[in-house]
Write a structure and sequence with these properties.
The complex is a heterodimer of chains A (about 475) and B (about 250).
Chain A lengths: L2 H14 L2 H44 L6 H7 L1 E4 L13 H4 L2 E4 L11 H4 L11 H17 L4 H5 L2 H7 L4 H32 L5 H28 L3 H30 L5 H15 L8 H14 L11 H37 L5 H13 L3 H29 L13 H4 L16 H31 L2
Antiparallel strand pairs in A: 1-2
Helix pairs in contact in A: 1-9, 2-6, 2-9, 3-16, 6-9, 6-10, 6-11, 9-10, 9-18, 10-11, 10-15, 10-18, 11-14, 12-14, 14-16, 15-18
Chain B lengths: L10 E10 L2 E11 L4 E6 L5 H9 L6 E6 L8 H5 L2 E4 L11 H11 L6 H10 L16 H15 L3 E5 L7 H16 L3 E6 L2 H7 L2 E6 L2 E7 L9 H9 L6
Parallel strand pairs in B: 3-7, 3-8, 5-6, 6-7
Antiparallel strand pairs in B: 1-2, 1-4, 8-9
Helix pairs in contact in B: 3-5, 4-5
The chains are: A mainly alpha (about 475), B alpha/beta (about 250).
């Protein structure tokens, strides 16, 4: 057995006899299991609720009587975003972005009913998900287990005796790294096992699960290596502990909260009221279809009459009001789409700013990776909004076309068409975003995590040289 | 022992100079220890005894001069040099959570010097550690018992050079006598022993040569007499008290 393996094995023996360390490790493993269980329960409950609500609103929609199609445009539809399979592991921004959109004519509504607005304030401090435990609490345990790994040997002079046996500084550091790397992976094992069971059951894609496990393994290894390296470079174990806790506070607590503030200061988003006012101004510019002097709609009317070869709207084979609705919807949708794109561009700029700083706070990298693979990141939310808007436009324009094409053949002051028409409209079916389609959301976090591990490996080599000098 | 005995000194230090910052600790130290010889290096605090051991163990690279252990330069090939040496530190540093037997087995494995159960038990017997203590954790051991375990480890290494840093510190007189008998046996096996110590009485009993380290070099060396008292203890005491002063 190599010296490094012997040292690793001895490290495990030391930790196995450390009662406080064992209790802390057992508690963390328990917490991961509880987080998995409660997250899966929560996911099932939310999923069931959304399915029930969706079925209920679909039923109400189908139950609408024969009506004027424009009434159905305003009756609208609710669509609920189904949760991604791995959202139980990392709820991401789901709890804050809302998951329900009311689709209606003339306007784009934002998503509503965010969990964070309906639940207790505690939710705002982070849900108990496996991702939260692995990202925030597991590093603390790894610090606690590794901060004295090398410092203890220096302080008790066993390091000198080890080196005197012909063991190199590299072997000492390698042994400690192997020992703590194995512990780090063991800490993540319960969470990884649940992910693998999930994939084996066909509930999640193997690719996403494999990358999720690789990402978290790299994140946990990073803290184990950091613990050993700081322990080797710091003077005494208590100095190493102070440095490591300081790094945890900066990397895990401070930067991930301070950077979004800095990003929003740098690229300010319009408030809801400002957005509404700007939209209202843009909508006013479209013109008024009921104003006989409105230049845009006068031109539109002339074009329609020319297209059909008639002189008056009454001679049209289609209902002119229906055509105006189609044109009006096209124009308002463009205005809303432009506003949404501007908003998304600003938010993306803020996100890019924060993600660039994942170089100094790898928590941002693992969080980005985890949310992307769990399908609970902002990109997945935008994807849902985009699909909902595409569906809304198609849904409203179908009804507008029904108005234009079917109403001229119906007599009476209150023309209606059969409910069967909107019952035939296909329902919204969300096609979940493929995390691999946005490879930059995966490649950059992995590059950051591997970069950190590479930098720490270089520091470990320096530490190996230094501990030989420290032994004199 | 596997090393072939030659006329080359097991330990050869020539013109060794070492300073830490502005403080020059060694100023041209010359020292040789032959196979089968026990050398007591005496000196006051800060005289450079530990620095000499660090140079032999390859923990420091000499600023000037040469150091050889069994012909190997420890600065250039620390692993090779350390394979020829066993070292017993002043403050015995072994694992508290391991038993005496486990400690020896672990450090032997680290030295890539796997020995059988008999060899480990033989070394523990040789240092006079009671058998009932062999499988007890070191956390309950006295300083003397720990010292014995460390010496047992050094013996079990079965190497041609022994470096001992205050080896009798913490040992009772009877244990010192037992220890000296072990060194006698090592001498018989042509082991070169460099013993850094304050314990002149022990040095008188066992050393073949003694050297006074002062002002960064060996100020005076004395050889044990072949007949009559081995050393003049009073003269040694007197010289020890003046170590570091001009001769």
């Amino acid at each position: 057995m190599s010296a490094a393996s012997l040292i690793a094995r001895e490290e495990w023996r030391v930790l196995a006899r450390n009662r406080a360390g064992l209790i802390a490790s057992a508690l963390l493993v328990l917490l991961i299991l509880v987080a998995n269980f409660t997250s899966l329960e929560r996911r099932s409950a939310i999923e069931a609720d959304r399915e029930r609500y969706q079925a209920s609103v679909d039923e109400s929609f189908d139950a609408q009587p024969d009506r004027h199609p424009h009434r159905m445009v305003h009756y609208g539809q609710f669509v609920f975003r189904p949760l991604a399979p791995l959202a139980f592991f990392d709820a991401g921004v789901d709890s804050f972005t809302g998951n329900t959109v009311f689709l209606e004519g003339h306007r784009q509504n934002s998503a509503n009913f965010a969990e964070a607005r309906q639940s207790s304030l505690l939710l705002r401090f982070g849900q108990l998900t496996p991702a939260f435990v692995l990202q925030t609490l597991a590093p603390l345990l790894l610090i606690f287990l590794a901060f004295a790994s090398v410092g203890r040997e220096k302080e008790r002079a066993t390091l000198k005796l080890m080196l005197a046996q012909g063991v190199s500084g590299r072997s000492v550091i390698a042994g400690k790294l192997i020992g703590h790397a194995a512990i780090a992976l063991a800490v993540g094992l319960p969470a990884f096992a649940v992910l693998l069971v999930f994939a084996a059951a066909g509930a999640a894609e193997w690719g996403s699960v494999a990358l999720m496990i690789l990402g978290y393994a790299a994140w946990l290894l990073l803290w184990a290596v950091l613990g050993v390296v700081v322990s080797a470079l710091a003077g005494r174990p208590r100095d190493a502990l102070a440095i490591l806790i300081g790094l945890w506070m900066v990397i895990v607590i401070l930067l991930p909260r301070a950077l979004p503030e800095a990003a929003s200061a740098q690229s300010e988003l319009a408030t809801k009221i400002e957005t509404e006012i700007a939209l209202h101004r843009d909508l006013l510019k479209i013109g008024d279809s009921h104003d006989p002097d409105d230049p845009y709609f006068n031109d539109f009317k002339e074009e329609v009459l020319a297209k059909y070869g008639v002189d008056t709207v009454e001679e049209l084979p289609v209902q002119y009001a229906g055509l105006v609705s189609i044109e009006g919807e096209r124009l308002t949708t463009q205005i809303y789409a432009d506003a949404a794109n501007r908003q998304i561009a600003s938010e993306s700029e803020q996100n890019a700013f924060v993600h660039a700083f994942s170089v100094v706070s790898p928590l941002i990298a693992i969080r980005q990776l985890s949310m992307a693979l769990a399908g609970s990141d902002l990109s997945a939310h935008y994807d849902f909004l985009d699909q909902a808007e595409t569906f809304r436009y198609d849904f409203v324009q179908r009804l507008n076309r029904m108005q234009a094409e079917l109403l001229p053949g119906i007599e009476g002051d209150d023309p209606r068409i059969s409910a069967a028409y909107w019952q035939d409209i296909p329902r919204f079916a969300y096609d979940p975003t493929d995390p691999f389609a946005r490879s930059q959301n995966l490649v950059w976090p992995f590059a950051v995590l591997l970069g950190w591990l590479g930098a720490l490996a270089a520091l470990a080599l320096i530490a190996a040289r230094r501990i030989e000098r420290a032994a004199r | 022992m596997n090393m072939k005995i030659t006329s080359t000194p097991a330990i050869a230090i020539e013109g060794l100079e070492q300073s830490y910052g502005h403080k020059q600790v060694l100023r041209g130290l010359d020292l040789t220890v032959k196979r089968g010889e026990i050398y007591a290096l005496l000196g006051g605090n800060g005289a450079g005894k530990s620095t000499t051991l660090s140079a032999l163990l390859g923990f420091i690279v000499p600023q000037a001069g040469t150091v050889r252990v069994c012909g190997i330069d420890p600065a250039a090939d620390p692993r090779g040099a350390r394979a020829t040496m066993a070292y017993v530190p002043e403050n015995v540093s072994l694992y508290e959570h391991l038993t005496a037997r486990e400690n020896i087995a672990y450090f032997l494995a680290l030295a890539d010097a796997m020995r059988g159960r008999d060899a480990i038990e033989g070394a523990l017997t040789a240092v006079g550690l009671a058998e009932e203590a062999w499988d007890k954790r070191l956390s309950g051991f006295s300083k003397g018992m720990r010292q014995k375990v460390a010496i047992a480890l050094a013996l079990a290494r079965d190497v041609p050079v022994l470096l001992l840093d205050e080896p009798t510190s913490g040992l009772d007189p009877r244990a010192v006598l037992e220890f000296n008998r072990l060194l006698d046996a090592a001498r018989e096996r042509e082991v070169a022993v460099l013993m850094v110590t304050h314990d002149i009485v022990s040095a008188v009993d066992i050393a073949d040569r003694s050297g006074f380290l002062g002002q960064g070099r060996i100020e005076e060396e004395r050889e044990a007499s072949a007949s009559g008292p081995r050393f003049d203890l009073n003269a040694l005491h007197d010289r020890y008290a003046r170590a570091g002063e001009p001769a």
